[in-house]
From TrEMBL:
Belongs to the class-I aminoacyl-tRNA synthetase family. Pfam families: Anticodon_1 (PF08264), tRNA-synt_1_2 (PF13603), tRNA-synt_1g (PF09334). CDD domains: Anticodon_Ia_Leu_BEm. This is Leucine--tRNA ligase. One of its GO terms (molecular function) is leucine-tRNA ligase activity. Residues 293-505 form the Leucyl-tRNA synthetase editing domain. Residues 807-924 form the Methionyl/Valyl/Leucyl/Isoleucyl-tRNA synthetase anticodon-binding domain. It comes from the Bacteria. A motif ('KMSKS' region) lies at residues 733-737. Signal peptide: none annotated. Residues 64-169 form the Methionyl/Leucyl tRNA synthetase domain. It is an enzyme of class 6 (ligase). It comes from Actinacidiphila cocklensis. It catalyses: tRNA(Leu) + L-leucine + ATP = L-leucyl-tRNA(Leu) + AMP + diphosphate.
Length: 961
RNA sequence: GCGGCGGUGGCGCAGUGGCGACGCAGCAGACUUAGGAUCUGUGGCCCUUGAUCGGGCUUGAGGGUUCGAAUCCCUUCCGCCGCACCA
């Protein structure tokens, strides 16, 4: 595979070639494995092998869990793994006990779909994929502690996933204490009367089913009938997060419908505030924090009750529609109301006939309100979210025939239904203030509804709304036109007006200040085979029972058919059927759960793909513990809170930005529950998060827009040709389907793993996406060749270093490099670290003399985290018998890292006219005198009068004339 | 539409107020039968010169602050990423 011919080989039999690299790399990988070089020491338990190591400061470094895909890796995949490995190796050399390993997130749809197509058990194909991927990763020389690796599909692992599920199931959120507590403590409160039951009956008088139902309303994991995203094409329900903005499944791109189904949910909303506020202490990219904040979507406002006349014509305080608004200050401007089409009160308020004088555009041309509402509801339900989306600008809706009363002005306001109000947000009903809300404005214009200006525009448009082109929505203005019984907001600013009206509302019991969240509870069940079974059974009354710990794990049974029943993707009128439900032998089970052997029916849903990755960081710590999820002493050692990381957590977590909300939010939620229940000492799972960029690749397409093999495209004078046909070039993702994938195996074969590692790290900053440039890889290969040649004679293979003392210039170059490289490594700036190593090596190459041993050794140590195989080989050639994994990383001598002379630039009017070599500590006056006396300066000045001299010792003198 | 990030040689990118790092490509040379191997040198554009020297212009565009701007401020254009009728 190497480009080097036999001729060159004979000339330099010990040149650093791809073959030599392959030989070195395989040998060191074997040695690391047999010596257990990367074993991290626990303070106690079965992995406490080395107390000296455990006594060092710890670093817990993690990559996001890979899914073992059957397609194999391309060079983009290991980018993050290489980066964490470099960082981990650097940390080992700076005296840390480093925990770095990698497991597999191995439950998932691809294996199941493959099983459906081929009949291969998902476990079989998944395990084969893991073997392939392990081999590919091993070839890169990643320093993982293999003892700590596992896959989520291991029963020993998912036993604890199920255990955590039960912990969550058996907990409730105590709002007063602001934490989760065991459900038994809630039962005790109901039992002794401290807490009243919903209907006031004593707890003991409730049937088991009723008690179960009550508790279900509090449990952090609960089964409930709720509107969920049903995807007939996949045959499963999906979490909101798995549905794209245009209402399709993220996987498969099938239509998704709203259906009311009984599903398992996680009460993540109980943690909304903590998930939000605890972000502050985390060292995460702002963009990710922002996405989480937006996803949680906290907004402060008020709930306000609007009395409505019911269908029988009675105005009644009982029939009130509650709205959520963030602009309670504009309540006087509410001239109509809108309910979501699905709102439960709609039917109750629709009268038999249109009220006298109903505006024709409000009725949609229907004879009665009931007809109009039914027609609109039907139309809204049949529309996919895509269609709603497309029509977002055109406001549609219909009058219900009912009127409500604006509680502050007393004015009657018509009640509409319209699909611009969403059932899932707030209360599913709004008060519409067309003058001060853009959506309401558009609706009011379309339906010729009145407007009332209650916030004085500051842009000079005046208060006559008939002349307006849009709503005036600014917060920075004063309230007008807002005086009523016992209240006047006139003259107040928006903020004060909000406070005043909120107080007035709560005094009267018709509203209150409240906080609303966009975040909803997490849909946790899937109609899939290849996932963790729920540790739940149902008795003959349908009451769910948690299985005791002793019955875990509930293992996945064998089935004949892995597929859920799927349907016509467009048929909304279908409902899910799980693969596990077809296995009667498994679903029906006789158990003794404390009251004698009885027959139970197993839960046949499985957990979603995220379950296994919600807590894996904890299992890396103590992977073999059969008694506990993780030993508290071990957890506190690796993840406990300490200075600089008050919430504790992993020291560095590297992965793609695509997990910004899903995985990271779920994992934080589980972590907090486990913390509340006292199982762990850290409040957050991941202290520092880093998003690596993507490696992109050029996609070449022919005239039919079909991708052609990128490797076979030729460039001729700025144009691209394939098989004699001109093709176009665009930057895109790397992948098999685009025919532009480059595999790590190819690069390793052509140059070696160290070159691949170096190139991936040198391409640019880790967090930036950049194109893979096949031609540029050779640059890093050359660097390694030069490093090799600076230490080893290519003809004899003998070490060439001298025992001479390094000259001062070399020493300074070395210490400057050390200084820069250590700083860069600590901050994950591997690209600039490599540039500085290259600079040093170029200096040594140009010196054209044997490299002094002291300098060679430091150079080898500097490059060791980046290119560990060649570094180990050189280190051993230099006479060291032990691996350099735990050798001390070079430390810069500050006196040598700084130049004895710095170049001072002398500018005249900002243009450089002369350069002086001066000591760094030169006094300003002396520097100025030196500059003014310089012949070049004198010449450039030509006797002109000097107006001013700016001296910035020691680097600059600027003369102004 | 709202929010975030970013635009520097042919390319990937260094550089957070004061000499454009490092690599690729290119060009010239060396070793070579040859080289897409390796080594050495060169290194944006324009003017001037036989060649040096010298001078001018360059960090998306335009303006501003400053003795001095890739860096700070304003305006504008382009690209990428989130969110998207969230009341």
């Amino acid at each position: 595979m190497s480009d080097t011919t036999p001729a060159a080989e004979t000339a330099a039999p010990h040149r650093y070639t791809a073959q030599l690299a392959a030989d070195i790399e395989r040998r060191w990988q074997d040695r690391w494995e047999t010596e257990g070089t990367f074993a991290a020491a626990n303070p106690s338990g079965d992995l406490d092998s080395d107390p000296e190591l455990a006594a060092r400061p710890k670093k817990f470094i993690m990559d996001m869990f890979p899914y073992p895909s059957g397609a194999g890796l391309h060079v983009g995949h290991p980018l993050g793994y290489i980066a964490t490995d470099v960082y981990a190796r650097f940390q080992r050399m700076t005296g840390h006990n480093v925990l770095h390993t990698l497991g597999f997130d191995a439950f998932g749809l691809p294996a199941e779909q493959y099983a459906v197509q081929t009949g291969t058990h998902p476990r079989v194909s998944t395990e084969a994929n893991m073997v392939t991927m392990q081999a590919q990763l091993r070839r890169l020389g990643l320093g993982h502690d293999r003892r700590r690796s596992f896959a989520t599909i291991d029963p020993d692992y998912y036993r604890w996933t199920q255990w955590i599920f039960l912990q969550i199931y058996n907990s409730w959120y105590d709002k007063a204490a602001d934490r989760a507590r065991p459900i038994a403590e809630l039962v005790a409160q109901f039992a002794d009367g401290t807490r009243e039951t919903p209907d006031g009956r004593p707890w003991a008088e409730l049937t088991a089913a009723e008690q179960s139902e009550v508790l279900s309303g509090h449990r952090l994991a609960y089964a409930a009938q709720s509107p969920v995203n049903w995807c007939p094409g996949l045959g499963t329900v999906l979490a909101n997060e798995e549905v794209t903005a245009d209402g399709r499944s993220e996987r498969g791109n099938y239509p998704v419908f709203k259906a009311n189904l009984r599903q398992w949910m996680m009460r993540i909303t109980a943690y909304a505030d903590r998930l939000l506020s605890d972000l502050d202490a985390l060292d995460w990219p702002e963009a990710i924090k922002l996405q989480q904040r937006n996803w949680i979507g906290r907004s402060e406002g008020a709930r306000v009750d609007f009395p409505v006349r019911t269908a029988d014509g009675q105005a009644s305080a009982d029939a009130a529609v509650t709205v959520f608004t963030t602009r309670q200050d504009t309540l006087f401007g509410a001239t109509y109301m809108v309910l979501a089409p699905e709102h439960e009160l709609v039917e109750a308020i629709v009268p038999a006939a249109w009220p006298e004088g109903t505006h024709p555009v409000w009725t949609g041309g229907h004879a009665t309100p009931a007809d109009a509402v039914a027609a609109y509801r039907k139309q809204a339900a049949s529309k996919s979210d895509v269609e709603r989306q497309a029509e977002a600008k055109d406001k549609t809706g219909v009058f219900t025939g009912a009127f409500a009363v604006n509680p502050v002005s007393g004015d009657p306001v018509p009640v509409f239904i319209a699909d611009y109000v969403l059932m899932g947000y707030g209360t599913g009903a709004i008060m519409a203030v067309p003058a001060h809300d853009t959506r309401d404005f558009a609706f009011a214009r379309a339906f010729e509804l009145p407007m009332r200006c209650v916030v004085e525009p500051t842009d000079g448009r005046g208060t006559d709304t008939t002349t307006w082109d849009d709503a005036f929505a600014s917060y920075d203005a004063t309230i007008v036109n807002s005086a009523g019984e016992g209240i006047s907001l006139d003259g107040l600013g928006v903020v004060e007006a909000k406070a005043a009206i909120t107080r007035w509302l709560s005094e009267r019991g018709i509203g209150e200040g409240t906080v609303n969240y966009r975040l909803r509870d997490w849909l946790f069940s899937r109609q899939r085979y290849w996932g963790e079974p729920f540790p739940i059974v149902y008795d003959e009354d349908g009451v769910p029972h948690a299985l005791p710990d002793s019955m875990l794990p509930v293992e996945l049974p064998e089935v004949d058919d892995y597929s859920p029943r799927t349907f016509d993707p467009d048929d909304a009128d279908t409902s899910p059927e799980t693969p596990l439900s077809r296995n009667a032998e498994w679903t029906t089970v006789e158990l003794d759960l404390g009251d004698g052997p009885r027959t139970y029916r197993r839960e046949t849903n499985t957990m979603p793909n995220w379950a296994g990755s919600c807590w894996y960081e904890l299992r890396y710590l103590d992977p073999n513990n059969s008694e506990r999820l993780v030993d508290p002493a071990v957890e506190s050692y690796w993840m406990g809170p300490r200075d600089g990381r008050p919430a504790g957590g992993v020291d560095l977590y590297v992965g793609g930005a695509e997990h910004a909300v899903l995985h990271l939010l779920y994992a934080r939620f589980w972590h907090k529950v486990l913390f509340d229940l006292g199982h762990i000492s850290s409040v957050e799972p991941f202290h520092k998060l880093y998003n690596q960029g993507m490696i992109q690749a050029y996609v070449y397409r022919d005239a039919r827009r079909i991708a052609v093999p990128a490797a076979e495209v030729e460039e001729l004078g700025g144009e691209y040709w394939y098989n004699g046909e001109r093709v176009t070039r665009l930057l895109g993702k790397m992948g098999k389907s685009l025919k532009n994938a480059v595999t790590p195996d190819e690069i390793c074969a052509e140059f070696g793993a160290d070159t691949l590692r170096l190139y991936e790290m040198a391409m640019g900053p880790l967090d930036v996406s950049r194109p893979w440039e096949p031609r540029a890889v050779v640059g890093q290969y050359r660097l390694l060749q030069r490093v090799w040649r600076n230490v080893v004679d290519e003809a004899t293979g003998e070490v060439t270093v001298s025992d001479a003392e390094p000259d001062e210039e070399t020493l300074r170059a070395l210490h400057k490099a050390i200084d820069g490289v250590s700083g860069d490594m600590a901050e994950l700036r591997f690209n600039t670290a490599i540039a500085k190593i290259t600079e040093l090596n170029n200096h040594l190459t140009k010196a054209a003399a044997p490299v002094p041993r002291a300098v060679a050794e430091q150079l080898v140590l500097l490059i060791a985290p980046l290119a560990p195989h060649i570094a180990e080989e050189l280190w051993s050639k230099l006479g060291h018998t032990a691996s350099l994994t735990h050798a001390d990383f070079p430390v810069a001598d500050p006196a040598l890292a700084q130049d004895p002379e710095v170049t001072c630039v002398v500018q005249i009017k900002g243009k450089v006219k002369a350069r002086l070599e001066v000591p760094p500590a030169i006094p300003e006056a002396e520097l100025e005198a030196l500059a003014l006396a310089d012949p070049a300066v004198v010449a450039a000045l030509g006797g002109a009068a000097i107006r001013k001299v700016i001296v910035r010792a020691p680097k600059l003198v600027n003369i102004v004339i």
